[in-house]
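Please think about what follows:
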Amino acid sequence: MSTASYQTPAMRIRLSLVICVFAVLAVGMLVRSTWIQIIHDPKLETLARRQFESKILMKPRRGLILDRTGEPFAINLETSSLAGNPKKILKSRSTAHLLSRALGTQLSQLKKRLDSKKSFIWFERHLSDQRIEQFRKAGILQPSGEMPEGLWIVKEMKRVYPHGELASSLIGSVNVDAEGIEGVELWKNQGLRGKSASIDAFKDALGRPTLMNSGKDTVMQDGEPVELSIDASLQYSVEEALNESIESTNSDSGMVIVMDSSTGEILALAQAPHRRGVKKVTALTDGYEPGSTMKPLILASAINKGAIKVTDGLFGHYGKFKIQGRTISEAEAHEKFGYISMKKMIEVSSNIAAAELALKLGAERTVQGMRGMGFGSRSGVGFPGEITGWMPSNPKAIKPLTLATIGFGQSVMVTPIQMIRAYAALSNGGQLVEPTLLKRKEKEELKTSQVFKPGTVKDVTEALVTVTEGEKGTGAKARLEGYRIAGKTGTAQTVDPKTKRYSTSRHIASFIGYPVGVKQPIVVLTLLDGPRGIYYAGSTAAPLFSKVLSKVVARFSIPTTEKIRMPLVESTPTPAPVVEDSEVIKVAQSNAEILEQSLQSTKEVNLDHPVMPSLIGLTPQEAIAALKPFVPRVQIKGFGLIKKQTPETGTMISRNVKVNLILEE
C-alpha cells in the first residue's frame, strides 16, 4: 500500500477514531486505577487488611490453686512451643528439610501432616531447654533467635505443681492447652481459666506484629485463684503416715480424711496409692459398706428419738441370733453375750445387739434417722462425680434380716465423706455441717442443722470413749496420750465380684473418731482396703488414726485435755533442789514471742551448753524432747501447755536434772 493511501480522508477518519478509542480506554483505566488505589475499593481494602492486619488471641494466666495458708499447689511457668505456617513451609523445600530433621521424622511424613489450607499448626508444645538446644544444632533456630520463614517459637504458660504428687488426686491436672481435665483443675476450670482477648495487630513486611490495638471493649482477665481448705503441711504428714500403714499392713489402698467439725472444712484428704491421672476422689466417688462404724450412729438416732437409753440392755442371744433362716453371729466366736447395755454394745462392738437395736427402732425410723444424718444424698461439697450412696427407698419393704444387718453397717452403701460428716455432728455438739474443700471466708454463713440433742451427743460420746479406754474396747491402739479419744472401729466384709457373696478373705478396716473436749473440734477417718494378715481395724486403722491425730494436734497446736503420765527417770546422783511452785516466772511479752523464744532456746540445748532453756508455751512432749541430752527426771502437774517451770530459764543444769512443769489447767 502506498503512502498516499494514508492521506486519504477516509483513512484519516479511521485513524482518528482508533486514537480516540485508545485515548478513552487509557483515560478510563487511569480513572479506574485512581479510584481503586486512591479513593476506595472494598475488595482490595479487605485484601490489604488481610495482608497487613491480623487477630492475635491473648490467653490469660491460669489462676493459682492454694492451700489454706496461701501455699501454692498449682502455679504457671513460661515455656516455649514450636509452631508454623504449613503454606509457607510447603513452599520452601529447605525449611521443610530442616524441620523434618529437627523433629526426627521423614520428609514425606511431615508433608502429610502439613495441611496447605491451614495457616497455623503446633509442632511441639512446652519445649525443654535440651529440646531448644537440639533445634539450634539442627539449624532451625539461630543464636539471634531468627528462624526460617514459616516457623516460630511461641511463648505460652505451662501448669506446674511445685509439691509434685502431694494431693495430686484432689488437685487434678490440665491438658496441653491448660484446660482442666480432672480434680480441682476441672471442678473450678471456669474461674481458673480466666478470659481470653482477641486483639487487632498490624504486621510488618516479615509478618511480625508491630502495633496492637486492644480497643475499649476487649479486656483480658487472668484466672481467679482457688483457696482450698487443705493444709499442705498436714497433707504431707498424713500422706506419709498413710503410705507407711499401707506398706505395713500390705493393704491394696487406703484413705485418710481430717475435718474441722465446726466449719466442715476438709483439712487433709489423702488417698493411696495416688498418682496424677486418677480422675476421681474416692472419698466422694466410691461407696462402701461401713460395718461397725455405723453402730454408734444408729444408737444416736435411737436415743435421739427416745426409743432407748444408753444404759438400757438388749439380748445378745449368747452369740447366735437366727432370723429368717439366717444366723447372725459376733465377730469373735468366743463372744457370747446375754443382756448387754448399749454402752457395752459399742465397747465390744456386738453385732447381735446392734441388730436387735435396729429391729427395736424399726425400719421407718432407722432409715429416717440415717437420711437425717446425710446418708443417701450428696454432701454439698459440689465436687464432680460425687455419688449419693444407697439407702432403701421404701422402708416398708425392708425385711427383718435386712434391717438387722443395717444395724451393724451392712446392706447400705455410704461414702467416706458422709461418714465423717455424721461423726462430726457428734464431735461438735450435734450440728450437721456441710463439708467443704474450699477455705471458708470470714463471716461466711454455715449451712447446719441440729440432728442430735446435747444429751444424745454426751451419751454416745461416752460410749465411744469406752472403745479406746474400756477393758474390752476394740480401739485401744487409737489412743493418744493427753487426750480422751471417742471413736469406733469397723471391719466390714466386702462383696466378692465372682460369687456375689461376702468375701471371707477381703475386708475394709476403718476407724472414725475425735478428741473429746478440745477447743478446736477435729474428726478423723482412717480406712484401709484389703489389709492382709491381721486385718482387724483395731490393729490396722486404729494405729493409723493415732498417728494422724498426733500430726493434727501438733500442726494446729491443740492443747492436751488430760494429764500426761510420764515415768520418772531414776538416777543415783543427788537431784537438784526443787523450786517451790509459788515461784512464778513473770513474762511481759506476747504469747507468740514467748513461744518463738522458747523454741529457739530449746534448739540450743546440748551437753556442752548446760543452761536451762525456756519451756514456757511448749507441750510437755516438746519440753522432754528438748531436755533429752540431760536425761531429766520430770514431774508434771495439770494439763495443756507449760505455764511455769523449775529450774528457771538460764539456770546451770547437769545430767539427771529434776524438772517441775506446771501446765495450764
About this structure: Confidence is low (pLDDT under 50) at residues 568-592. Residues 9-39 form the longest helix (31 residues). The domain at 232-555 is CATH 3.40.710.10 (Beta-lactamase). The chain has four domains: 3-40, 56-227, 232-555, 591-663.
